[in-house]
């Protein structure tokens, strides 16, 4: 099942979720590594180019995910705690907004000098906004947003584990296996 139902997520949603999650962790790790490199380190330029290219591809995946999300039914919330559903909805919205902020700030860092971003040698993303001090300001924002995203992802993962271990509901399982419904076994 490719599409979502009111009972569970489809393979497209599941695939985009996990692809983006793994990519975010990879970019975060690469970002931590990159900031320790000096201009003379052998992989200084390569790590920067990889980070930018993967970031652009992730932004495109984010856009696809947002479009898919709004063109599919959303599985109904499990449990009867309205406050948990509200917190989950807010958390998901913040995850999407933090990612968008990271894409924008990363773009502003990368294009501050007026050069476009080359994406794996396949296409270029042109520089459209440049300004004095842009790279430093955008860099500080990018770092704060990256740490905020990782913190919120940890909260998100902790909530999924809580639902699985303590509440014994299908919240986590629905993001691992497409087409689940209440009659499926855990």
From TrEMBL:
GO molecular function, one term: metal ion binding
Alphabetized Gene3D superfamilies for the sequence: Transmembrane di-heme cytochromes, Chain C
Keyword Transport: yes
Superkingdom, natural source: Bacteria
Domain Cytochrome b561 bacterial/Ni-hydrogenase: 9-177
Lipid bilayer topology: Multi-pass membrane protein
Keywords: Cell membrane, Electron transport, Heme, Iron, Membrane, Metal-binding, Transmembrane, Transmembrane helix, Transport
Cofactor: heme b
Bilayer-spanning residue ranges: 12-35, 50-68, 89-109, 144-161
Record's subcellular location: Cell membrane
GO biological process: respiratory electron transport chain
GO CC terms: plasma membrane
UniProt keyword Glycoprotein, yes or no: no
Family: Belongs to the cytochrome b561 family.
The name this protein goes by in its record: DUF4405 domain-containing protein
Organism whose genome encodes this protein: Venatoribacter cucullus
């Amino acid at each position: 099942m490719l599409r979502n139902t009111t009972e569970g997520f489809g393979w497209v949603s599941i695939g985009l979720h996990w692809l983006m999650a793994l990519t975010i962790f990879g970019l975060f790790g690469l970002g931590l590594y990159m900031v320790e490199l000096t201009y003379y380190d052998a992989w200084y330029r390569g790590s920067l180019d990889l980070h930018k290219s993967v970031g652009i591809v992730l932004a495109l995946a984010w856009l696809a995910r947002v479009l898919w999300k709004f063109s599919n039914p959303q599985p109904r919330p499990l449990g009867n705690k309205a406050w948990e559903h509200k917190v989950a909805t807010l958390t998901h919205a913040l995850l999407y907004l933090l990612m968008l902020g990271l894409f924008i700030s990363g773009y502003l860092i990368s294009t501050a000098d007026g050069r476009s971003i080359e994406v794996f040698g396949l296409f270029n993303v042109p520089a459209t906004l440049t300004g004095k001090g842009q790279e430093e300001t955008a860099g500080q924002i990018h770092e704060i947003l990256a740490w905020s995203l990782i913190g919120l992802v940890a909260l998100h993962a902790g909530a999924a584990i809580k639902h699985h271990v303590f509440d014994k509901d299908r919240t986590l399982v629905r993001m691992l296996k497409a087409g689940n419904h209440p009659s499926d076994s855990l």
